[in-house]
Amino acid sequence: MRTRKRYHHGALRQAILDQAFRALEEEGLEALSLRALAAGAGVSKTAPYRHFADKHELLMTLAAEGFGRLADLLEAALAEPGESPTDATAGVRALSNAYVQFAQARPALYKLMFSRLGFSLHSEKCRINSQRALSCLVRVVQQAQARGWRADRDTNVLVLSLWAEVHGWVGLVIDGLLPESADNEAPVIESVLGAIL
Predict the structure, then answer these.
(1) Domains in the chain, please, with CATH?
(2) Alpha-carbon gap, residue 59 to 64, rounded angstroms
(3) Is 67 helix (H, G, I), strand (E, B) or coil?
(4) How far is CA 68 from the centre of its chain?
(5) For residue range 85-125, what is the model confidence (pLDDT) as tens digits?
(6) pLDDT tens across 77-90, in order?
(7) Which of 69, 101, 107, 194 is at a distance of 20 to 30 A from 121, taking alpha carbons?
């Protein structure tokens, strides 16, 4: 008989989330269930419901945490030195590549973050974390403009254009829709954003 694990307050919630992130990438969204996660964590089938009312709340939490992880990665990319004094768009390139790397490493989570699934996954935490991620792109575009790149263009228009380009590229890559002749490993900016930059 399997012995059920004991968790300190809050530890079970994180254990369920950790299991959910793994299951999402390894088995897909359809296989994700609170009961299966409970079994994986070695707790009773009702234990996860102390932290998540239902699967919808779990998915909302995963989406919010996903945006938080993306924001952390983009903020780290912004903080790294190494911008070329002769290349005003070096920061834009670095940030865009970090975005692509996140999506390629966690394709199922990335899709969940931007999906509708017939219901909204938006929550206040999701809004805050997604705004953090977007603000990184705004900042890097403002920095590039301050160094002379597209200084006459509206910042918000540039931000939306860049995001649309990178987001579209990511969708093609993780859905396997690029032709075999495409160089999937080429830096995203060199492959897709060259016309904008």
Answers:
(1) 1-52 (1.10.10.60), 54-193 (1.10.357.10)
(2) 9
(3) helix
(4) 8
(5) 568 888 998 899 899 999 999 999 999 999 987 677 889 99
(6) 998 865 565 688 88
(7) 101
